[in-house]
Write a structure and sequence with these properties.
The structure is a homotetramer of 93-residue chains.
Chain A (H helix, E strand, L loop, with lengths): L6 H8 L6 E3 L2 E7 L3 H18 L4 E5 L2 E6 L9 H12 L2
Antiparallel strand pairs in A: 1-2, 2-4, 3-4
Helix pairs in contact in A: 2-3
């Protein structure tokens, strides 16, 4: 299992991400799509990535908007795998 | 467009639903599945229903849990179509 | 219900599509994606379109490849709605 | 990588499956659902399983029908993982 990263490690890694912040202890990003169809295509692809990594984000959707929150319940914080999932999400757009 | 239902109409209709309540002015239900796979199968099916009805829920997913909130932005409240979407969601399980 | 198009009408419309042909009486296209994930994102989006149009393609998927065949069982041929679905599929890429 | 099973091994394993046969060298099953929505829910769940196993079936869909063919290109035949995917597909219904 990936270990919880320190605040310093998280800050360092955040510098290399695009648009991710930490909100309530989770990696957080809000995405806007053209419409529901495009948003759902993203959600479906993210679901595949999550299942493959066996690391699932909290996500919500309201028509063309998708909000993603990533943390590890097992590690009690943000891990390297959380950043891997975040990077994979970015790679889907 | 479906018109906003009155509080009385909503109360009456809620009696015929299974597990739906009104939270912050929206039809609300929380569902638990066996795992992420089953939860996502439900999400995919509800997405089809929503697109067909052209009425999309606010929803969130955290592994095996799905929370659904339904209201009409256009009508400024809960409409007959909201209940139609809720019934369709129930029909998927 | 959309009516079956004549051969001449189909030929005319095919000129305005990108990569669609008629194979065994159906609008036919073969698509290749980067990987299964991208192919499935397309599949999920086309499913939404099909359900909304109430016109569903015959399709198959083999990892990064998707083959689509569109015709109308009800009309016994290719209709304007078939071309609408084909155009919508093209719009998803 | 899983190794190709022998004909005898395949016959033995097929006895423990429900409705799978070997067609053109692949594990084959045809499924019928209530409608497109239910069929697509199955497809979406199968996609998650396939991505997790990193073993993807050939599948096709025509409204409420889904046809699945499973083999291993790498092994040049049917492997234990093919049966694992088949069993997982059965577990989704």
């Amino acid at each position: 299992m990936a270990e919880k990263l320190t605040g310093t490690e998280i800050e360092e890694r955040l510098r290399h991400t695009d648009g991710w912040t930490v909100v309530e202890g989770k990696l957080h990003k809000e995405l806007t799509f053209a419409d529901f169809n495009e948003a759902f295509g993203f959600v479906a692809r993210l679901a595949l990535v999550a299942e493959k990594l066996d690391h699932h984000p909290d996500w919500s959707n309201s028509w063309n908007r998708v909000v993603i929150d990533i943390s590890s319940h097992a590690a009690g914080g943000i891990t390297a795998t959380c950043f891997e999932l975040a990077a994979a999400a970015d790679g889907l757009r």
